[in-house]
Amino acid sequence: MGEDIREYICDTFGVQYKLNNVYRLLHELNLSWITSRLKHPKQSVQAQEDFKKFPS
């Protein structure tokens, strides 16, 4: 992700940043990279469907 942002900044603004400075800038702007979790290999799809049936 940081490398993509670094390339975007360079291509768009003609400014080169080191990767650690890109992350520092993101932090200063209160931006973060959120990724989804991988699925656990032992997860049960049936248990998830059953859980959805419980009243809230």
Number of DSSP E strands: 0
Element string (H = helix, E = strand): HHH
* Binned strand content: under 5%
Query: Radius of gyration, rounded?
Result: 20 Å
The level of helicity is: 40-55%
Structure annotation, total helices: 3
Which residues form runs of ≥5 with pLDDT under 50? none
Net shape? elongated
Structural class: mainly alpha
Largest sheet: none
- Termini gap: 37 Å
Give the averaged pLDDT, no decimals.
88
Could you characterize what this model shows?
The chain is mainly α and 56 residues long. The protein has a domain at 1-32. The protein is 54% helix and 0% strand. It has helices at residues 2-13, 19-28, 45-52. The protein is elongated, with a radius of gyration of 20 Å.
From the structure above, extract its key features.
56 residues; mainly alpha; 54% helix; 0% strand; elongated
Task: Give a quick summary of the entry.
The chain is an all-alpha fold and 56 residues long. It is 54% helix and 0% strand. The chain has a domain at 1-32.
Question: What is the topology?
Answer:
Elements (H helix, E strand, L loop, with lengths): L1 H12 L5 H10 L16 H8 L4
Helix pairs in contact: 1-2
